[in-house]
Amino acid sequence: MTNIIPQTNQKIILKVLAGHIPTAAPTLHYSNPFELLVAVMLSAQCTDRRVNITTARLFTRYRIPQDFATLEQKTLADEIRDCGLYRNKSRHIIETSRILLEKFGGLVPDKLEDLESLPGVGRKTANVVLSVAFGIPAFPVDTHIFRVTRRLGLSNGKNPFEVEQDLTRLLPANELGVWHHRLIHFGRSTCAARKPDCSNCVVRLYCPTNNTN
Predict the structure, then answer these.
(1) Which of 17, 21, 84, 96 is the most exposed place for a label (fewest CB within 10 A)?
(2) Catalytic annotation on 142?
């Protein structure tokens, strides 16, 4: 496991990455908090590109919890089949829609514990909704961020929660959202899972796992 590097080097890495990727935004398409919640639920083990193709069609027919709550599971499963895990996802989306209507007045809650109480909504999904939909400081840790932060020596957390704790201590609260998207972009474009492009990495000189040395 990679050890956390000295704070001076961490700050250099963050400064260089911020200059290299000055802006970073969500890649999922949505127009309200509920659509974002559904899109993030669909994104489990699926690419954002595929989710966007699916929701472009889906959200023309169903847009609010009332629309999903009355659906037959098979109907929704057929609509989202291309996203994978469609049986579980369809069940969770329908159950979540019903709970939103019964307990939250049809609105997506803006509290972590309330979001995590919804079927199929884990901590990462809840943090994405808090950060992106409501602008509440939160740092969702997906597979890209878990990989990148450990490779760069920004965290040695053994699980996503530990990585989240390390990064929320390291980063300003008002920048957590942009750093979430920035590190995902870096993980997709440079620090890929199977073959990181270390020779073209802008922080290779400070990275403890740089394989060009």
Answers:
(1) 84
(2) yes
pLDDT band at 35 (very low <50, low <70, confident <90, very high): very high
The structure tokens listed for 77 are: 């499963």
pLDDT at 6: 85
pLDDT for residue 2? 62
Q: Do the Cβ atoms of 122 and 87 come closer than 8 Å? A: no
Q: What is the pTM of this model?
A: 0.92
Instruction: Name 70's Cβ contacts closer than 8 Å, sequence gap at least 6.
Output: none
| Catalytic one of 11, 124, 166, 197 | 124
Task: Single out the catalytic residue among 48, 82, 142, 166.
Answer: 142
DSSP at 83: G
Spatial distance between the Cα atoms of 58 and 52, rounded to a whole number of angstroms: 10
CATH 1.10.10.10 fits 7-25+139-200, yes or no: no
Task: Please give the class, per CATH, of domain 33-134.
Answer: mainly alpha
Q: pLDDT tens across 40-60, in order? A: 999 999 999 999 999 999 999
Cα-to-chain-centroid distance, residue 164: 12
114 catalytic residue (yes or no): no
Look at the block and give the residue holding tokens 């290779």. Answer: 204
Q: Are 41 and 120 in contact (CB under 8 A)?
A: yes
